[in-house]
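Support case: user asked for a sample of complex input and structure output to validate their parser. Sending the pair below.
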Amino acid sequence: MSVPAKPVLLTGASGALGRQLTRHLAQAGWTLRLTDIAPFPDPLPKGARFVAADLNDGVAILRLAEGCGAILHFGGVSVERPFEEVLGPNIRGLYHIYEAARREEARVVFASSNHTIGFHERSETLDHDCDMRPDGYYGLAKAYGELMGRLYWDKHGVESVFLRIGSCLPEPVNNRMLSTWLSYPDLCRLVERCVLAERVGCAVIWGASNNARSFWRKDARDLIGWAPQDSADTFAGQLAGKVSGDPVEERYQGGPFCAMEYSRKGGFSPKHLFDRK
Ligand code: 15L
């Protein structure tokens, strides 16, 4: 595997995905600048240094990005939370990341999420250019991030890859994840390609392994040269019946995030004026 010419900044390095990426990319010989608001819990691998920082602190982010050729932005709140908790790290923080990328002429690989489109029904198969239908403040902030990247591409030529990550865990744990699961090795290979690909422009990739039950179809994977090698299909026997029993959760792609604080009255009646189906 090749090594990028410049150091790579990874935010959210102390989180589950950040730790996987750190191990994998350091092993491949990459020079990594790691950051997170929480301390890095593992021994620091060769070629990596860690500086704790809050994404709200624009000056700290600009300093961290100095001389970097790519920013892997995996930091911020990673689950559904009240708006005020999401606002700082996920909205203001994104602005700091994109300002740093503009200054350094760096490429951004943004850990977006399936929760940008969570209110599409599970019966739909989506392409990268489908409507955004966020299922909470977290998904909304990820949608904002993708649009922020679009703005910086159109106005400043900052390249971005938006990874709409499904469920990135060691193994799928329920029926929904037979569609949404992304293995750690597939994630690592995907991020590698996002950085090493010659040109990416402003691209969306569905972050899911090669799952037969996938909700998602077209994206920019051929452009960056990535094909997932793992699949949730091998877990189908044990997980097919593993459902929550919540009708909102089971109806929509975003699953449990859709059901949180759900208060729409009248169930799914077609009488709803704004129902699109
Ligand atoms: C995400 O975006 C979350 O970060 C993660 O915690 C999972 O809930 C995942 O989506 C999912 O939808 O399974």
